[in-house]
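dumping this here before i forget
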Amino acid sequence: MSPRPLYDIEAVRRRIPLLQRFIPMNNCSQAPQMDITRAAAEEYLESWKTDGMDWDRWMGEVEASRISFSRLINASPDDVSVCVSVSQATSSVASALDFSGSRKKVAVTEGEFPTVGHVWRAQERHGAELSWVPARDGVIPLEGYRDALDEETILVSACHGYYQSGFKQDLAAVVAMAREVGALVYVDAYQTLGSCSLDVKALDLDFLASGNLKFLMGIPGIAFLYVNPAIAETLEPTLTGWGGREDPYAFDLKDLTWARAARRFDTGTPPIFEAYVARAAMDYLAEIGLDAIQAWTEELSRALCEGGKARGFQLLGTEDSTRKAPTTAFLIPGDSHDVESKLRGRGILASARGPAIRLAPHFYSTLQDVEVALDTLAEVLGTEMA
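structure:
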């Protein structure tokens, strides 16, 4: 018998209207809409239409999304800040660090999404010095941290999943190496969270950020930042706003009293509409179970790697499904964006990045989806090379 997930995948698939037209394999870029996320969006729109403004209700939904995210990563709601993007979350963390002392180095992997590297590069004007952990052939070798870390390192910036290849880092090992030199650890989990279990307490992370439009099945415009409570109240981010105050509703122009714990990283008016959608999606994923989702997406990854190899595709990254996100990347001769467009025309939603085409299924995807996507890619590449 063919492998099956531990949940009712047919019931899951009935909640995704896009499956009637396409096979979405682009979760590394954008998740498809579910009926529950559509309903959540309409709930906000109805409130806005009929009430004009229901601030208390809206703020309650923002808090509910904060709680939902905290549960996914085994944190307290007070240890989570609501942001608008991972760019903002990373910038907020960077703005809270002091690069004027003996610790001024930031170790950044070459597998970070560009926005993260750009944030740390921008801190060079404030005294930060960057050391790069190399990425090779879609993998970030652990030994690369050895040369990048020393007693002057203030922070290690390590993506959980490499956006281009799907390679997943061993965060426990990264944290251990950072602790050897007394450095903090910042993790961008955008390319993994929602497809696997992740426990910030067990990993002893200092910071973790993720947006919601990928494997968390949400939309752009909202992200979350975890800050370890052991250090949160020692930090004062200069990227701030009225939401980061102890009493934001005092509307005191001259008061800079910081909110407790990670809430001090909140900035201005929160993303209300997006919070409705994010909360609905995260609660649904929690109901399905991240462990069950991880087991199934690893099965899908195995099928992609084996099927790609059988068709002669060149894999970028690792074929070990336990060391990768659901994303599988194949190197493409020629224009990968052109291949993405041709796949869309044949009913397959993929995602091009640089020299690679990425196929990223999720918990609703089937093994048949994988086979059809691979066959279609082979057809497109055959046409391209003919």
